[in-house]
Design goal:
Elements (H helix, E strand, L loop, with lengths): L7 H13 L4 E3 L6 E2 L4 E2 L1 E3 L2 E7 L5 H16 L3 E5 L5 H13 L19 H12 L2 E3 L12 H15 L5 E5 L11 H17 L3 E5 L7 E3 L6 E3 L12 H5 L2 E6 L17 E8 L10 E7 L4 E8 L2 E6 L24 H4 L17
Parallel strand pairs: 5-9, 5-12, 6-7, 6-8, 8-9
Antiparallel strand pairs: 1-4, 2-3, 10-11, 12-13, 13-14, 14-15, 15-16
Length: 361
């Protein structure tokens, strides 16, 4: 029957929801994303999908990787990753090993010199073992036009679960527009997103889909003469309005232009990334607003800035292995410090990028 009455079977499921809640939360490790009493929270949920978008070079994939790492670190999730953004499978694994330790995996820098910041052999062994149990990457076959279709991705996912006798907790597709049967037509976007939502619900997963935004309007700053893009709206993702119609939780990743506050506008740090909530479904999964996080160049992870007990805190997510490490800092020989009196006795703490060029990556 297409229509059902409230019978005993339905009632039992309703009572289960009554006792346990309608959501199966997937919390992230940032304290500022879990401030329920203050009306500020952002999380995932099983049987739900996250549609994440943004302009090119605004950090969509980097934010996605941060979420993947936190799901693995905090919840021990098994994550299946389809990505065309990061190169060969081996290279993707080295990147995630680096994210886990907060250090470069490779011993050699791009210029051929020795990387003194690289993780040790023992740390590499530890990271490889950790990733082996939690991260599975889709190996592409660009010669087979049917291999990267959505249908085949789900088929390969089911085969891996059967082979390994596991159950995936999350499927991440980055980006959706590299899935061969995803076309920017209204009916195709509707079909694909309907399928993605259905698969997440039926398999009790929290799935993440990455998209980019379409062309947005531009304005000209009358003072500086610079052209600026307006923030993308929820219906301006690649593929049109059906993205917003069918999305469950929808967010925009945006890197705002740095500002020191001298013009009277809010201070924006050079490494700041803003997460804008564009749609909340199901109810209670997030609170509308903007959530700012900050990029740590040395670990390639994000950290947060929150205010507590009269103090400013700059910290990685609580689930991160190197939680106690100070972001964007390094060991310094105090004998080599040369500062002016103004620099030495400044009263306002700022976290800034080092002037040195000797970055670990």
């Amino acid at each position: 029957m297409s229509f059902v009455e409230l019978d005993g079977r339905i009632q039992r499921k309703m009572r289960e929801l009554r006792e346990k809640g309608e959501l199966s939360p997937v919390n992230f490790g940032f304290k500022s994303w879990n401030q329920y009493n203050e009306g500020k929270y952002l999380m995932g949920s099983r049987k739900c999908t996250l549609l994440l978008g943004g302009e090119p070079n605004h950090g969509k994939s980097q934010v996605t990787n941060e979420m993947v790492m936190q799901m693995i670190e905090k919840h021990k999730f098994k994550v299946a990753l389809f990505t065309t953004e990061s190169g060969d499978v081996e290279k993707v694994f080295t990147q995630f090993c680096g994210l886990y330790q907060g250090k470069p995996y490779t011993k050699i820098k791009p210029d051929g010199s020795v990387n003194s910041f690289a993780m040790s052999d023992d740390e590499a062994d530890e990271a490889e073992y950790f990733m082996r149990n939690h991260l599975f990457i889709f190996k592409q076959d660009r010669k087979d036009s049917k291999y990267q279709t959505l249908e085949n991705i789900y088929q390969q996912l089911a085969k891996m679960e059967e082979l390994m006798e596991i159950k995936f907790d999350s499927l991440v597709i980055d980006p959706i527009y590299d899935v061969d049967d995803f076309q920017p037509k209204a009916d195709e976007v509707l079909r694909v997103l309907n399928r993605i939502n259905l698969e997440a619900e039926e398999n009790n997963r929290f799935d993440i889909i990455v998209n980019h935004v379409s062309e947005t309007s531009k304005t000209v700053d009358q003072k500086t003469g610079k052209r600026r893009k307006l923030l993308a709206l929820a219906d301006e993702f690649y593929g049109g309005k059906n993205n917003n119609r069918k999305a469950m939780l929808q967010i925009l990743v945006h890197r705002p232009e740095p500002n020191d506050g001298s013009d009277g506008n809010p201070v924006v740090m050079e490494n700041q990334t803003n997460i804008h909530i564009l749609k909340v479904k199901p109810e209670g999964i997030a609170k509308w607003g903007v959530y700012d996080i900050y990029y740590d160049w040395r670990s390639r992870r994000y950290y947060e800035n929150y205010f507590e007990d009269g103090k400013d805190f700059f910290r990685f997510a609580e689930c991160v292995k190197f939680y106690d490490r100070r972001p964007n800092s390094s060991d310094v020989d105090v004998k080599q410090i040369r500062v002016t009196p103004d620099q030495a006795f400044q009263t306002q703490l700022k976290i800034e990028q080092d002037d040195e060029d000797d970055f670990p990556f």
